[in-house]
Amino acid sequence: MSKFILLFALIATIAACHSNTKSEENAPVVAKDSSSRPEPVTKSVAQSTLPSFVAFKNWEIGDPELANSVLGVYEAWDRENTDSMAKYFADSAIYDFPNGTRIITTRRTIAATFRKWRHEYMGTSNIPFSLISLHNNDNDQDWVIAWTWNKWQYKDGKRDSALYCDNWRIKGGKIIYLNSLENNVSKALAKRLNENIPK
């Protein structure tokens, strides 16, 4: 008798499950409320925890067109087309050079200053093998950092070369500041740069 009751209970359970499946299949499709969907997670940029004396610490990738402007300066210099260089610079620009001198150009003096500087050389080759445009959020400033393998020949025929790190500050699409750092390289590194960087 107990076996019969157990069998009956099992059949009743199967029938009930089958009935529920059918009712679910036949139930009308209700459109989901799109307004109830969770908002996409916005990735927050972590702020630097460097100490306060690090004045430039929160950086992000900047406008790549600014790097193109710096490239235009190098190309115009090597072609001795100094008159066209002025268009990349603001009405007033400051230059801090590796030898410790600071020069300031204005709209009136910039073209003549560039011609004077370039006249010292018979030929130059500035190859920027690294150009990166950066924006500093701490000071709301745009910079282009350029590493260049620089080779030149003086009017007397003497040749020389150096590795430069040029830091260009750009405001409103125009260069307002250059800090240029010269690096004397080992013979091994100079050989590698000459072999891997196009002339």
Overall radius of gyration: 34 Å
Q: What share of residues is helical?
A: 25-40%
Query: Widest sheet: strand order?
Result: 1-4-5-6-7-2-3
Q: Give the terminus-to-terminus CA distance.
A: 101 Å
Oligomeric state, counting identical vs distinct chains: single chain
| Spatial shape | globular
Strand content: 25-35%
Number of helices in the DSSP assignment: 4
Low-confidence regions? 1-32
Whole-number mean pLDDT: 84
Task: Describe this protein's structure.
The structure is a single chain. With 199 residues, this protein is an alpha+beta fold. The protein has a domain at 59-196: Nuclear Transport Factor 2, Chain: A, CATH 3.10.450.50. Helices cover 30% and strands 35% of the residues. It has a seven-stranded mixed beta sheet, with helices on both faces. A hairpin with a 4-residue loop joins strand 5 and strand 6 (159-171). It is globular, with a radius of gyration of 34 Å. The model is unreliable at 1-32 (pLDDT under 50).
Keywords:
199 residues; alpha+beta; Nuclear Transport Factor 2, Chain: A; 7 strands; disordered N terminus
